[in-house]
Design goal:
The complex is a heterodimer of chains A (165) and B (280). Chain A contains six helices and two strands. Chain A is an all-alpha fold and 165 residues long. Chain A has a single domain, classed as Arp2/3 complex 21 kDa subunit ARPC3 (Orthogonal Bundle), CATH 1.10.1760. Chain B is α+β, with helices and mostly antiparallel strands and 280 residues long. Helix content of chain B is 37%, strand content 26%. Chain B has helices at 8-26, 31-108, 273-279, and strands spanning 114-122, 130-133, 146-148, 153-160, 165-169, 176-182, 186-191, 198-203, 214-217, 229-237, 245-251, 260-264. In chain B, strands 1-2-5-4-3-12 form a six-stranded antiparallel barrel. In chain B, a hairpin with a 7-residue loop joins strand 10 (229-237) and strand 11. Classes of the chains: A mainly alpha (165), B alpha+beta (280). The interface between A and B is medium-sized, with 32 and 21 residues.
Chain lengths: 165, 280
């Protein structure tokens, strides 16, 4: 039931990601709501971090994007794995884990995308990519982390209440 | 002594007194007297009227508030409905103007066949500049077909499903378009970038270009039909050690406001890859 809810949330986030969110830009970066929801969901106290949710997010984003599915599947799965690893072994402070996972997750996804673009004979300057895309995206993600986390926490409480077993 | 009823002097005196009073009143000499005399009466009348009105309002107030609230709610609902109608009509006018402009564009190029499509999304990756349109292979769209707006060239179809297509914009870092500048008739290669800025490379050094020159598709390479407006040169750079000039282009299309586009469905892009493979 909880996994189904998570998949539905990710589906909604993917729809927002292709319709509304690309219009909200800082330089060339845009917020990655799918990654935000993935990480905040995985780090809720009621949920166990599961890298397979990253796989689902990658499949959805791969379908929505012109990038090859494998690139985004690898990116989001790795981001989820980083989150899972941090949660298990490094820190127990949830917000700190969330922040670190978000920064590392954004970096992982962008590095994999950039690597693919270089390999596919479509080189983008690493400096431009970092300054114009990755840093603004990271900043937007960090700005939205707290509100998204609050929403996901409330949603978790809602579906965890006795009325909704 | 009892006065006589029929005393004529008394009657005359009364008439003279009445006429005198009348004349004094008409002359305005009695106004202060009247004002002074009527002032307490008017004050009492005003006081009574105010109290009566207050009592009347107190008695009728609940009925009035209820009816006013009902009327207010009705007016609010009516206002909301009218506002919605205004917004709908404004959208229709805007859409009508856009369609009219697209129709003008299509009429100006009768050699092409167009399929109109609405923009329904953008690529979620910030590294790519693609849009998604609501027409696909069911509507006759194929990969490689050029996409234009009433302002000029938008891009070409990169992927097609039955009901939707993905369009690679000319601003995408991977996009390359053969272009020709007017009036110099010089060819070059237009490329997109991460920042959505367009630049032209491979311009011969002896070409005389000016900022403001128009940029059209050249049709060379077979990927796009010729003579579609792209934009105008914003600046030209010539370096002493470079083999070619480069130029920046201000696109004619506002890619952030794309709503409806036209796909040129009767254009078949050429696939030159077999020739290139045999050559390599």
């Amino acid at each position: 039931m909880r996994t189904l809810m998570a998949v539905l949330l990710l589906l909604g986030a993917t729809l927002l990601q292709i319709t509304l969110l690309p219009r909200i830009r800082m330089l060339q970066g845009s917020v990655d709501l799918v990654l935000l929801i993935l990480l905040t969901w995985m780090l809720q106290e009621e949920n166990r971090p599961d890298w397979r949710l990253g796989l689902v997010a990658g499949v959805m984003m791969g379908y929505a994007s012109a990038l090859p599915d494998l690139v985004l599947i690898a990116g989001y799965t790795l981001a989820a794995l980083v989150c899972q690893l941090l949660h298990r072994r490094v820190w127990q402070v949830r917000m700190l884990t969330m922040l670190t996972s978000l920064i590392l997750g954004t970096l992982v996804i962008h590095i994999i995308t950039l690597g693919y673009l270089w390999l596919s004979d479509n080189p983008i300057s690493a400096g431009d990519a970092f300054n114009l895309i990755t840093l603004p995206t990271m900043l937007l993600n960090l700005i939205l982390l707290l509100p998204v986390n609050a929403l996901i926490t409330e949603f978790n409480k809602l579906i965890s209440s006795p009325a909704n077993p | 002594m009892r006065p006589s009823r029929n005393n004529p002097y008394r009657l005359v005196a009364l008439i003279v007194a009445a006429a005198g009073i009348l004349l004094l009143a008409l002359g305005g000499y009695l106004t202060p007297l009247f004002t002074g005399a009527l002032s307490p009466v008017e004050g009492a009348q005003g006081w009574l009227y105010t109290r009566f009105q207050a009592i009347q309002d107190f008695v009728n107030a609940p009925v009035n508030i209820a009816s006013l609230r009902q009327e207010n709610a009705q007016l609010r609902a009516e206002n909301a409905q009218l506002q919605t109608e205004i917004i709908t009509l404004q959208q229709q006018v805007s859409e009508g103007e856009l369609l009219s402009a697209l129709l003008d564009f299509a009429r100006a190029r009768p050699e092409n066949t167009y399929q109109a499509a609405g923009v329904i999304g953008q690529d979620p990756s910030p590294f790519l500049h693609y849009i998604i349109i609501n027409r696909g292979s069911d509507d006759g769209l194929r990969r490689g077909m050029p996409v234009v707006s009433q302002q000029g060239l938008v891009g070409r179809i990169a992927q097609v499903t039955a009901t939707a297509s993905r369009v690679e914009l000319i601003t995408d870092p991977g996009s390359q378009v053969s272009v020709r500048m007017q009036p110099s008739e010089v060819d070059g290669l237009l490329s997109g970038s991460v920042t959505s800025q367009l630049s032209i490379d491979l311009i011969p050094l002896d070409a005389n270009l000016q900022a403001g020159d128009l940029v059209f598709t050249s049709g060379i390479g077979g990927a796009y039909p010729g003579n579609i407006l792209i934009g105008q040169l914003s600046n030209v750079r010539r370096e002493a050690t470079a083999l070619f000039q480069t130029a920046s282009v201000q696109s004619a299309v506002d890619f952030t406001r794309l709503e409806i586009v036209l796909v040129i469905v009767n254009f078949q892009p050429l696939d030159l890859s077999p020739l290139l493979d045999s050559g390599g």
